[in-house]
């Protein structure tokens, strides 16, 4: 028995390692697929709504995919234009940061040292830094080329929605088919509910953050609103980073510590209201995942695909946990990643 358990554990470790290598080296294919899977679960309720309005299934799929592409394209244009303005101002912000640290060193009467904490900035061509940031912002538009592959996957996923249950009914006996279809429905409903509510909460947080920054007169509010929307998919860590960035740039833009602190306080209050009050009420009992499991997922997917992997880490963990909770042979995994 002990030997069999050790063999099973060894096989699982090897399997995880092999899967990790495959996902890492085949990122160009798997990343669009997983992103399409994310969009599928988010947009499935919309497809259900359109079909209830007696809109033919193929027409509903075309409408959803077309609107998704249009929204992403327009969002890319807005972010690119905002990034162009930000890139022009970046050298000024970097110089202000250097001056601020020098003033802080003088105010605190810290001993002068030969080590310049921002000495590496002096070796940089600020125009090149701005161009580098602008080219990075341009990846939002360059992503549209690979997004075409995402749309292809999404079209096939949405077009095939509901066919899995028909295939199960045709492949198994009535009683077994009923159990399997119920299992599939439970998995799909749990994932759709979580991702739909989480996406709405991230959108709400990003929009309100953008609105608050506009009221404070912070430049590049669109970029920070979009960053907030994305980073809120990363629990705790992402939410903190999403507040520190506008705090720093508000401090540099206005040279007012008090204004930057007030902005930070308002953003934390906003996060407390949405993250601690509104979102739990809408989620209900939730999926109750272990913080350690979430942390491991963030590191694992971050190692695989970088920042984009970290953004998909928790949604993918939710999908895996929902499947494990509804498949008897995989319940050990659901218990492993639960609180």
- Radius of gyration over all CA atoms, rounded: 24 Å
How would you state the average pLDDT, rounded? Answer: 77
Order of helices and strands: HHHHHHHHHHHHH
Helix content: over 70%
Query: What's the shape?
Result: globular
Q: Strand percentage, roughly?
A: under 5%
Number of strands: 0
Low-pLDDT ranges: 120-126, 132-141
Largest sheet: none
How far apart the termini lie comes to: 29 Å
Describe the structure.
This protein is an all-alpha fold. The chain has a domain at 27-161. The chain contains 13 helices and no strands. It has helices at residues 2-25, 27-52, 57-107, 119-122, 126-137, 139-159, 163-171, 174-216, 221-231, 237-254, 257-283, 291-326, 331-336. The longest helix has 51 residues, at 57-107. The two termini are 29 Å apart.
Describe this structure in a few short sentences.
The protein is mostly helical and 339 residues long. It has helices spanning 2-25, 27-52, 57-107, 119-122, 126-137, 139-159, 163-171, 174-216, 221-231, 237-254, 257-283, 291-326, 331-336. The chain has a domain at 27-161.
């Amino acid at each position: 028995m002990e030997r069999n358990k050790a063999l099973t554990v060894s096989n699982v470790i090897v399997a995880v390692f092999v899967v990790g290598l495959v996902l890492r080296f085949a990122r160009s294919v798997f990343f669009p697929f997983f992103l399409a899977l994310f969009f599928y679960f988010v947009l499935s309720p919309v497809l259900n709504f359109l079909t209830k309005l007696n809109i033919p299934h193929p027409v509903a799929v075309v409408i959803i995919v077309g609107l998704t592409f249009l929204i992403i394209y327009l969002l890319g244009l807005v972010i690119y234009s905002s990034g162009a303005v930000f890139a022009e101002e970046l050298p000024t912000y970097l110089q202000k940061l250097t001056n601020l640290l020098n003033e802080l060193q003088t105010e605190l009467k810290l001993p002068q040292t030969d080590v310049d904490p921002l000495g590496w900035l002096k070796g940089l061509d600020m125009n090149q830094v701005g161009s580098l940031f602008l080219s990075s912002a341009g990846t939002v538009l360059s992503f549209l080329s690979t997004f075409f592959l995402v749309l292809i996957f999404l079209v096939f996923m949405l077009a095939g929605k509901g066919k899995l249950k028909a295939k199960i009914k045709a492949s198994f006996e009535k009683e077994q088919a009923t159990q399997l279809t119920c299992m599939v429905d439970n998995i799909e409903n749990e994932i759709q509910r979580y991702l739909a509510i989480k996406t709405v909460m991230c959108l709400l947080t990003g929009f309100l953050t953008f609105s608050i920054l506009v009221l404070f007169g912070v430049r590049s509010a669109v970029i920070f609103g979009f960053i907030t929307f994305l980073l809120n998919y990363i629990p705790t860590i992402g939410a903190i980073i999403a507040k520190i960035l506008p705090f720093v740039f508000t401090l540099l833009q206005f040279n007012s510590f008090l204004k930057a602190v007030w902005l930070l306080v308002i953003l934390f209050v906003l996060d407390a209201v949405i993250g601690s009050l509104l979102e739990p009420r809408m989620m209900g009992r939730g999926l109750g995942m272990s913080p350690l499991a979430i942390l491991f997922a963030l590191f694992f997917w971050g190692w695989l695909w970088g920042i984009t992997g970290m953004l998909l880490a928790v949604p993918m963990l939710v999908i895996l946990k929902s499947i494990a909770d509804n498949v008897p042979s995989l319940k050990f995994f659901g218990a492993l990643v639960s609180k």
